[in-house]
Specification:
16% strand; Nucleotide Exchange Factor Grpe, Chain A, domain 2; 6 strands; three-stranded mixed sheet; three-stranded antiparallel sheet
Length: 220
Amino acid sequence: MFLRKKIIDLLGSLDQRLRDITEKLSEEKNSGESLPTALKELEASSSAAADKILEEMSKLSEKQNRHDMAIEDMLDIWDEKSAEADKIIASFQTAYEAVLQNEKKQQLDEAKAREQRLLTLAHTYQLQLDQLGQMLDKEDGWARQFQLIIQKTEAVRRQAGISLIGREGEAIDLKAHEVMEIVPTDDPGQQATVARVYETGFIYLGEVYCKAKVAAYRHM
């Protein structure tokens, strides 16, 4: 800005100088004097002013080049810092995602562990209910009350995605039944069906959680 102002001032000074010389030329012409002196002054003044302008323009160009180089250096530094910042952000994001993934895995593992404990507890209670049902007389009032309890627990099991395996008369499925004993029968309709249930099994969300332990009929 300073150099530009100086050049503008020089141009203004030169313009004023030319005006003065023009007026002097006009006066000399009117007075009938010769013009070489005025022309020489104009030539010398113009040459000096031009040299001064060229000098100032050279300085301005040099300063502009230094300014441009400084800007380029700053841009290079900015690019380097930006690249470093991008690497740091990417590294942080990767670490953050790893932490989240690890937390999700831990939460999932804990949820599965709790689920298994609950299933084990539910199966244990079911075995206790089976034993209690076997001990009660079917004609006894307690037995009727017990059947009402069984009906209520059955509804809750269905809501939880649990169904029971192991009922007398159901077909043997080795994926769902563990045959503990073979019971001979002369009734072909009983072939490969459950004769007795030792322990009730569980199906949870369509998959066998634990097999039912049963005795199976075999037609002889």
